[in-house]
Design goal:
Distance between the termini: 68 Å
Number of helices: 6
Number of strands: 2
Strand content: under 5%
Order of helices and strands: HHEHHHHE
Structural class: mainly alpha
Largest sheet: 2 strands, antiparallel
Radius of gyration: 38 Å
């Protein structure tokens, strides 16, 4: 008796549950809509005919304009951009190195003047300041160069984007002309 009830429940509820689930509808975007172009079948062309016409016009516009939007979109997929070169860090001990050089020079000058220790101290102070200033100047120069490189890369990207847009516009004009010749209203 239990088996009968289980079978009965299975027969009644499974089809009801399956009927409630929506069936997925495959939506295929037309070529014209993927290009941002609206093509209306003015001569009541069937959807299959419009698809064939769009494929033919895509091929013709590609040949006529020398541009393939599908290939361009694939080529422009985001890749890992090269990060800008980081400016070099200030040389560690630039002040100390400058101070050592200054102390040596100061000791020589101080020895001539009669007090090598005082000359070394003055030379060390001056050399330390000079070493830090030199390191700071080179760091600023490296930052300027990095900024210039970033600006050049941005300009090149903008130029490439503008060229691609021009080519795409030419392709769309050709595609639209072809579709209009086949009896479609294109906007």
């Amino acid at each position: 008796m239990k088996q009968f009830l289980v079978c009965l429940l299975f027969v009644v509820f499974v089809p009801a549950a399956m009927a409630q689930q929506p069936t997925p509808v495959a939506t295929q975007q037309s070529i014209s809509s993927s290009l941002g172009v609206h093509a209306f079948p003015a001569k009541n062309q069937a959807a299959a005919q419009q698809q064939q016409d769009e494929m033919a016009c895509y091929g013709w516009a590609k040949q006529d304009s020398g541009f393939d939007p599908l290939a361009a979109a694939t080529a422009q997929q985001p890749s890992n951009p090269t990060p800008p070169a980081a400016p070099p860090q200030q040389a560690q001990g630039a002040g100390a190195k400058g101070a050592a050089r200054g102390a040596a020079k100061g000791a020589v000058v101080g020895a001539v003047a009669g007090d090598a220790g005082k000359g070394a101290a003055v030379g060390a102070a001056a050399g330390g300041v000079g070493g830090r200033m030199k390191a700071k100047r080179s760091q600023e120069q490296a930052q300027k160069q990095a900024q210039q490189q970033q600006q050049q890369q941005a300009q090149q990207q903008e130029q490439a984007k503008a060229q691609t847009q021009q080519k795409l516009d030419g392709f769309k004009r050709g595609f639209g002309a072809c579709m209009e010749a086949k009896g479609y209203v294109v906007k």
